[in-house]
Design goal:
By secondary structure, the chain is an all-alpha fold. It has a domain of 57 residues. Helix 1 crosses helix 2 and helix 2 packs antiparallel against helix 3. The protein starts with 9 loop residues before the first helix and ends with a helix.
């Protein structure tokens, strides 16, 4: 029973998957999935989506249990197409 207490039902997993794919997270796990795994999830075939989403969700859950789930971006993270450099940002 201890193993099953945190297990998601198929409906909860489907709801979570829809929120992630529509980019409307409800918790930190879903936010992490959007930031780190959405590219893979959006490009996989529909028949493999359930298994892949469940794998990624369990990975995020394990990271959260260990306290390693990071959803906040680095303060000076720049997009690859940015016209500003880090020195300009630090001056501002």
């Amino acid at each position: 029973l201890w193993v099953l207490r945190d297990a998601l039902t198929s409906e909860e997993l489907l709801d979570s998957r829809l929120r992630v794919l529509s980019r409307k997270p409800e918790n930190k796990l879903e936010k992490w999935l959007i930031q780190n795994k959405l590219y893979d999830l959006s490009r996989v075939a529909e028949n493999k989506l359930d298994a892949l989403f469940k794998k990624y969700y369990l990975e995020a859950k394990r990271l959260e249990e260990r306290g390693e789930l990071k959803t906040e971006l680095v303060e000076y993270a720049l997009p690859s197409h940015s016209v500003k450099n880090l020195n300009d940002l630090q001056r501002e």
